[in-house]
């Protein structure tokens, strides 16, 4: 009986092997048809975005003769800088750049400051009618600028700020602050109450809670708003065209459009004006690219 038991114990047990699916190296799945379709879509979209910049860059350094002989897509036979020099001198380009930098910078700083104060009162202060106030700020962003021109024109005429850069600064500060308040009030509304209560127990006032607790934590979001407010204000055209009628107060987009309406300008000078108007914003974006990336990705990974 013992021997038979030993025979049973020594009998090998066979386990059917599991089928293991072969995976490519690196653990990545093979590209599917939808992946190739998305890649093709991205390439086409990139080409559509790059094409206008290529036309501006090529035609800016092309003489009118090269343009008439080869068309807009051909490369210039020689570097032609007269178009850039003509636009630079006719509009006093450094003055227009300074006007745009001053207006956009003031609007960005003031709009962010007002947005922080408004959002602190709405999102953290928990004032009455919070939802309706946020809805009003949202509706303010939906109003077209054309609907604001008539009342704003007479209002700034009455106070003596027409044809003054401060009229444009005030208008865009209010417009951008409405969007910033709507965005930041939603962000501050989810702020941990425990942190605020701990700061209040330590004796911090409301101003100290705002500038020493909330402001450092929300700095990436505020940096993104600052950059976007600057670029949005820089590219604005209708309101600066309406309120800045004198040549000395005009911004870069207004100067480009007004000069492009002149029949004495050729295509190469028009392309040169577009290139000069693009360079400042491109430099600004490259300088603050890392700040913009950090602000957008802040909070995405804990």
TrEMBL record:
SUPFAM superfamilies: MetI-like
Compartment(s) where it occurs, according to its Swiss-Prot or TrEMBL record: Cell membrane
Residues of the ABC transmembrane type-1 domain: 97-288
Membrane spanning stretches: 36-57, 97-120, 132-153, 165-188, 209-234, 267-288
Pfam families: BPD_transp_1
Organism placement in taxonomy: Bacteria, Bacillati, Actinomycetota, Actinomycetes, Micrococcales
Keywords for this protein: Cell membrane, Membrane, Transmembrane, Transmembrane helix, Transport
Residues making up the signal peptide according to the UniProt record: none
Membrane protein topology class: Multi-pass membrane protein
GO biological process, one term: transmembrane transport
PANTHER family: ABC TRANSPORTER PERMEASE PROTEIN MG189-RELATED-RELATED, SN-GLYCEROL-3-PHOSPHATE TRANSPORT SYSTEM PERMEASE PROTEIN UGPE
Membership in a protein family: Belongs to the binding-protein-dependent transport system permease family.
A GO cellular component entry from the record: plasma membrane
Top-rank lineage group of the source organism: Bacteria
Entry protein name: Carbohydrate ABC transporter membrane protein 2, CUT1 family
Gene3D superfamilies documented for this protein: MetI-like
InterPro entries cross-referenced by the UniProt entry: MetI-like, MetI-like_sf
């Amino acid at each position: 009986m013992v021997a038979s038991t030993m025979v049973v114990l020594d009998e090998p047990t066979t386990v059917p092997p599991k089928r293991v699916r072969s995976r490519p190296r690196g653990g990545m799945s093979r590209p599917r048809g939808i992946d190739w379709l998305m890649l093709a879509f991205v390439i086409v979209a990139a080409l559509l975005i790059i094409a206008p910049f290529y036309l501006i860059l090529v035609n800016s350094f092309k003489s009118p003769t090269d343009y008439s002989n080869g068309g807009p897509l051909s490369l210039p036979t020689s570097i032609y800088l007269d178009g850039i020099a003509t636009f630079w001198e006719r509009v006093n380009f450094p003055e227009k750049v300074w006007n745009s930098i001053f207006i956009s910078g003031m609007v960005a700083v003031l709009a962010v400051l007002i947005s922080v104060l408004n959002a602190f009162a709405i999102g953290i202060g928990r004032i009455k009618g919070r939802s309706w106030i946020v809805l009003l700020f949202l509706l303010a962003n939906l109003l077209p600028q054309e609907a604001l021109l008539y009342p704003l024109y007479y209002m700034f005429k009455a106070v003596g700020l027409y044809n003054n850069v401060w009229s444009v600064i005030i208008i865009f500060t209010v417009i951008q602050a409405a969007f910033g308040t709507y965005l930041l009030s939603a962000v501050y509304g989810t702020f941990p109450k425990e942190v605020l209560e701990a700061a209040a127990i330590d004796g911090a006032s409301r101003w100290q809670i705002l500038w020493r607790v909330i402001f450092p934590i929300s700095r990436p979001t505020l940096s993104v708003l600052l950059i976007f407010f600057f670029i949005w204000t820089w590219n604005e055209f209708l309101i600066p065209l309406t309120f800045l009628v004198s040549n000395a107060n005009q911004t870069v987009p207004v100067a480009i459009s007004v000069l492009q309406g002149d029949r004495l300008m050729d295509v190469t000078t028009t392309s040169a004006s577009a290139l000069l108007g693009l360079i400042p914003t491109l430099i600004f974006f490259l300088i603050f690219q890392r700040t913009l990336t950090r602000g957008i990705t802040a909070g995405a990974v804990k």
